[in-house]
Amino acid sequence: MDFTLTSEQRALSDSVARFCERNYTGAARNALINTDIGFSRENWKSFAELGWLGAALSEAEGGFGGGAVENALIMERFGRSLVLEPFLISSIHGLQTLLGTEPTQRRSEMVEAILSGEMLLSVAHSEPASRGDLNQCETMAQKIGPNWTISGHKSVVLGAPSASKLLVSARVDEGIALFLIDPAAVGVVMRPYRTLDNHRAADIWFDAVEAELLADPSSAPSAIQRGFEHALLGVCAEAVGAMDVAISTTRDYLKTRQQFGIPIGNFQALQHRMADMFVEYELSRSILYAGMAAMDRNCSERAKTIAAMKSFISSAALFVGRNAVQLHGGIGVTEEYVISHYYRRLFVISAQFGNESYYLLQMAKNPVPFWTSEVERGGTEAIIIVDKL
């Protein structure tokens, strides 16, 4: 496969980089963290105007003829600046899950609203007992006449506090289906909180909530899998961008911090540590490319490569983040210094959508799509909560 970027892809990457340089200084990001929603709606409006929200969609789907590579390019640049806007949650995970459902007029209207920036879509699939298992779903849907109601509990629903709509999985007699719910509907109880990396999430309880059926069990599982795989590619691309900046920031610190009258970067032991970090970063970038190439393959081959990618990058993200903090010494753990924020995000990414152990298990089991196999539970979807909103 030729990994040379096209002129359009280079232009996309450059435009994201310029935007982040202008709008994501440390002070600007800290100001956004302390707002009620934790990101900028003005930035989100700009994303829509620049076409980034539809960069990965074909022209037939209302986009600009791109694919998973375009999303990865955007997410890598976002990882370098620790962007807080819910691009991964709504425009990758939510949108790709929605596109996995059957084409309908309702779906087209929702896609248009997402691409215009009017709708933020959050996928509510994870449950306390799921531990990374996509087939685990205890939330129940019941049909009463022509209407559906949902009852159950979803955990760590990323982006839920600011979502316009929730894409909720629930079990019916034939299997898992997907429903659309208004987060302000009667019977929805949401407990929002800030995660360790300063993003926003919520635990949600549904008590006989009215819901709109979007996908029945014939298409919902494959739609969930599609959205999940695209989200994994996006979060791994973000990790690669964050690791790159963590390494360069640490390198610059070692060149300026002095001990015994010389820069500590002259010490061979620290040089070896930096070399190990760089190796992990380069290997992560290589396996990210493999993941991008695998998105066009059949289900089994794609699942294997995606599992290998997430397993390795989860480990590398922790290694690079921990060493970056350690090489900075005490300043590395302070709220005011940037490297602590990169470590927090890398720490969360290592567990987000499943950790290293979970995907090692999937590779050992020679995985096939989750709706046709029994998947042993493992990994974690847990993200450490540091305070409530």
Give a short synopsis of this structure.
This protein has 389 residues and is α+β, with helices and mostly antiparallel strands. Helices cover 49% and strands 17% of the residues.
Write the layout of secondary structure elements.
Elements: H1 7-23, H2 26-33, H3 41-49, H4 68-81, H5 87-99, H6 105-115, E1 121-124, E2 140-144, E3 147-158, E4 165-172, E5 175-181, E6 188-195, E7 200-215, H7 220-256, E8 258-259, E9 262-263, H8 268-294, H9 299-328, H10 338-351, H11 356-364, E10 385-388
Parallel strand pairs: 1-4
Antiparallel strand pairs: 2-3, 3-7, 4-5, 5-7, 6-7, 6-10, 8-9
Helix pairs in contact: 1-4, 4-7, 5-6, 5-7, 7-8, 7-9, 7-10, 8-9, 9-10, 9-11
Describe this structure in words.
With 389 residues, this protein is of the alpha+beta class. The protein is built from 11 helices and 10 strands. The chain has helices at residues 7-23, 26-33, 41-49, 68-81, 87-99, 105-115, 220-256, 268-294, 299-328, 338-351, 356-364, and strands at residues 121-124, 140-144, 147-158, 165-172, 175-181, 188-195, 200-215, 258-259, 262-263, 385-388. Strands 1, 2, 3, 4, 5, 6, 7 and 10 form an 8-stranded mixed β-sheet that branches. A two-stranded antiparallel ribbon has the order 8-9. A hairpin with a 2-residue loop joins strand 8 (258-259) and strand 9.
